[in-house]
Amino acid sequence: MVKNVPVLDLDAIIDDPGTRIIVCCGSGGVGKTTTAAALGLRAAERGRCAVVLTVDPARRLAQSMGLSELDNTPRLIKGVEGAGTGKLYAMMLDMKRTFDEIIEAHADPERARQILTNPFYQSLSSSFSGTQEYMAMEKLGQLRRSGEWDLIIVDTPPSRSALDFLDAPERLGRFLDGRFIRMLTAPAKAGGRSAFKLLNAGFGLVAGALTKLLGAQVLKDLQTFVSALDAVFGGFRTRAEQTYKLLQAPGTAFVVVAAPERDAMREASYFVERLAEERMPLAGVVINRVHRSPAAVLSAARSTAAAEDLESRGEHELTSAVLRLHADRMQLAAREQREQDHFTSAHPTVPVARVPAMPGDVHDLDGLREVGTLLAAQ
Amino acid sequence: MSSRDTDWDGVRLHVVTGKGGTGKTTVAAALALALAAEGRKVLLIEVEGRQGIAQVFDLPPLPYEERKIAVAPGGGDVYALALDPEEAMLEYLEMFYGMRRTGRALSKLGIVDFATTIAPGFRDVLVTGKTTEAVRRKGKNGRRIYDAVVLDAPPTGRVVRFLNVTNEVAGLARVGPIKNHADLVSGVVASPETAVHFVTLLEEMPVQETLDGITELRRAGLPAGGVFINMVRGSLLPEAALDAAAAGRFDPAELALGLKAAGLAEGGSGTAVAEALAQEVTEHARRAELERQERTSLDAADRPRYELPLLSDGVDLAGLYELAETMREQGAA
C-alpha cells in the first residue's frame, strides 16, 4: 500500500466561498453524475447557492431530486436541509436547445432561419460528437455570467476521449479556421481578386471531388450553412475561450471521478495528466465503489484455509460458505487496492477521497446526502 | 460451420454494445474467440480509436490492418482491425473511384476532419461500410473470408444512431454515391445476418439502458441479439441463509460456533469476527436481492441471456479464454 497519500478534503472546497466552479470528470459508469449531485446537495446544505449542471439524461437522477424530469433551465430542488440560506438548483443540458438559442441570439431573424433549417446545422446540433462538450462549456459560461449562483457544479459528458470538453473550443476553432472552410466561404467574402482566384482554383478541384462523392445538392447546402454560420461564430469562439480561461482560474476545482478498476484508474491517470498539461486546477480524485470488509482482520488466505478445513470435515456448511464469501471479498479489496496503488504511485501528490461501495443505487435526497457524507468523511 | 447448434447460426455480423463500464470490449473479444473455436476465422473490429482490443489481448497498439492476434480453442483464428475513419475514407475513395491521390489531397486539406466534425453520419457510414465490406468479402473459392465479424461498437446510448446510417445520411444526402453506399450498408446491418448484443451488469442503470436500447433498436427495425450479463458473482450461500440475511435476521451464533470449530476464535475474538462476517453476509444478501430484481427487469426484453462470471483475478488472456468457453457452453457461439 502506498503511504501518505494526501486526503481530498471536499468540505474545505465546497465551504470556500472562493470556489465558484467544480468540474467532475471521469470515464463513463463510475458514478460521476451521482458524485456531482451529492456534492451539490452537500454544498447547498452547508449554505451555498449551488446549481448542478448535468448531461446525464437518466431520469433516475431527476427523480432522486424530486423532479419528474430535468430540462435546460435550472430548477429549484425542494427538501434541502441545513440551517443556512443555501439553495440547490439542477438542470440537464439540452444541447440542441442551447445551440438554437445561441443562433437565435446572435443572428438576425432571416439568417437564423437559414441556419436553423439547414440540414447540416440539424446534423451538427444534434449529433456532432463535440457539440455536447462544447454546449456544456457554453452553458457553464452562461450560468457563471448570470451571477445567480455562487457555486456551479458541472458533470461532464462521458467522452470517448477523456477531455473532449476541453478540446471542443479548439476543435471548433480549427474547424472554422481550416483551409476548407475558408475555401467554402471564399467566394462570398474574398476581397482581393488574386486571392479569390487562387482559392477558387483549389476549390474547383475539391468541389469536383466532393460533388462526385456527395452530390451537388449536398455541397450547396454545405456552402450555405458555412457562410451563414461563419458570421455567427466569431462571438461563439470568443466566449469559448473565455470559458476556457475561467476553468483555469483559481475559483475552479476539477474533481476526477474514478472506480477502483483498471480501465477507470487508467482513465483517471490520463485525466490528471491532461489537466496538468492544460494548467487546469485539479482538486483531487474521488474513487467510488471501494469494497471494504468489516472483518478485515481475517485474511483471505486464513479464511480459505479454514473453509477447506471445515469442508474436509463435513462440518459447519454455512460457516464455510461465509468464509469463502469473505475470502472473495478480501481478494476483491486487495485487487482494488493494487489498482489504486498503481495510480497513487504514479501521482503521489494528488489528493484522494474514497467512497465505499453501496449495495443499491441512489433513489432520493437522503441517498444523495449519504453519498455526500461519505465523500466528506475521509 | 461446426455441427453444434448455437443461438446465432446464420449470423455473420455480431455487434456488441453496452453502457460504459460494463466490459463491452472484453465481451466482444471473448465472443470473437468463442466464434472462432474449432477452426473458424473471425474478425474483431474496434471503431472508437481507444486501442481497447490491444489492451485486452495485451498487445502493442494495432495498426489499420487486419492482423491475426489470437488462436481460438480447438484451432481457429481471431483477426483484429482498429478502424480509423480517415483511412477508411481513403480506402473507400480508392476502391470505388480510383481516387487515391485526390483522397490524399482531401485529407491534407482537413476534409476528413471536417466531414467527421460536421456530419458524424459520414464518419459512421465509413466505419460501418468497412465493417460490412469485411462481412461480405469473398475469397477466390467464392466463400466468405470470415465466418463471422465481431464489432466492438459505440456505447448503448449511441449505437442505434451509429447503425442506422441510412437514416443519418438521408438528411444530408438524399441522392448520390454516399447515399448508395449507405443503402448497401443498411442492407447488411438490418438483415438477419446481423445481431446486436447488449452487455450489462446486474445494476439498475445498465439494465435500464439495455432495455431502452433494445426498444430503440426494434423501433429502428434493427435486429436485437442477446444480452450478456457480465461480472456475475456466484452465490455461495444457501438460499435460506440469504433470505434470512436480506430480512436482517441472520444469526451470527451458528457462525461463531463454526469459527470456533475452524480454529478462528482464538482469544475469544470469535463473536466479534462472527458479527463482522454477519454484516458482510447481510450486505451480500441485499445485493443478491437487488440482482434478482434486475434479472426480473431483464425478462421484459425477452432476449437470449448469457451469464459471464466475475473473474476474481481481473481480465487477462486466460480470463478471456475462460469467458469464451462459458459463452460456448451457453450456446452464444
Automatic annotation (TrEMBL), chain B:
Which InterPro entries does the record associate with it? ArsA/GET3_ATPase-like, ATPase_ArsA/GET3, P-loop_NTPase
Pfam families documented for this protein: ArsA_ATPase
Q: Name one GO molecular function term.
A: ATP binding
Residue ranges constituting the ArsA/GET3 Anion-transporting ATPase-like domain according to the UniProt record: 13-170
Superkingdom is: Bacteria
UniProt xrefs under PANTHER family: ARSENICAL PUMP-DRIVING ATPASE ARSENITE-TRANSLOCATING ATPASE, ATPASE RV3679-RELATED
Which protein, by its recorded name, is this?
A: ATPase
Question: Organism source for this protein?
Answer: Planobispora longispora
